[in-house]
Amino acid sequence: MTNGEHAITGTAASADVDWDAAAADFDDEPDHGLRDSEVRQAWASRLRSWLPERACDVLDLGCGTGSLSLLAAEQGHRVTGVDRSPAMVDLARAKLAGRDAAFLVGDAAVPPVGEERFDVVLVRHVLWTLPDPGRVLRHWRGLLRPQGRFVLVEGVWGTTAPTVGIPADRLAALLAPLADDVRVERLSGDTRLWGRAVDDERYAAVATVA
């Protein structure tokens, strides 16, 4: 749901954005709605490389309108999405109607999933907005099954101050005590993902837990 670029171009802190009001045109951004076939294919290819090959349970936190959830479902995974915006959740439910997916209204930092555990925690452009990312990651670690993995797409938006986001080296350091293997994949240079050229820091951190 929460997107760094939106926070900058909207000249508002992400926490102050009315995401229910933003839901109607959220998918107009190329990397939100994935309506362009090339952008969609680029994200599908990356997601396939980050997720396990076998069908698994994916928890998509800050799922927004469900674009990544849909890609995961199309690749055979079972998806649970969580977003604090009821309007976003309604759109995600409509987008994945008939798929093996469920969507819940709730806080991505403390998702309302009870005792359920997952193979993957998938998060895009959300962690940087949450207070105390280290604490949040520790909580998310408890939602993963053994040999589960984090798939975290983050970045630092903007190249001159003030910028917002979380640098890759900081996120890797936060993940190191929680995972046996942490891999950072740089994404800024792949214009297909964003529908345009970008010059700020964008990356995915993929980390497997014990």
Briefly characterize the structure.
34% of the residues lie in helices and 25% in strands. The chain is of the alpha/beta class. Helix 2 runs parallel beside helix 6 (86-95).
Mean of pLDDT: 90
Tell me the number of strands: 8
Q: What structural category do the secondary elements indicate? A: alpha/beta
Q: What general form does the structure show?
A: globular
Order of helices and strands: HHHHEHEHEEHEEHEHE
Number of helices: 9
Helix content: 25-40%
Measured by DSSP, the beta-strand proportion falls in 25-35%
Major beta-sheet overview: 8 strands, mixed
CA-to-CA gap between the ends? Answer: 29 Å
3D structure, described in words:
The protein has 210 residues and is of the alpha/beta class. It has 9 helices and 8 strands. Strands 1, 2, 3, 4, 5, 6, 7 and 8 form an 8-stranded mixed beta sheet that branches. The chain is globular and about 40 Å long. The protein starts with a helix and ends with a strand. Residues 1-13 have low confidence and may be disordered.
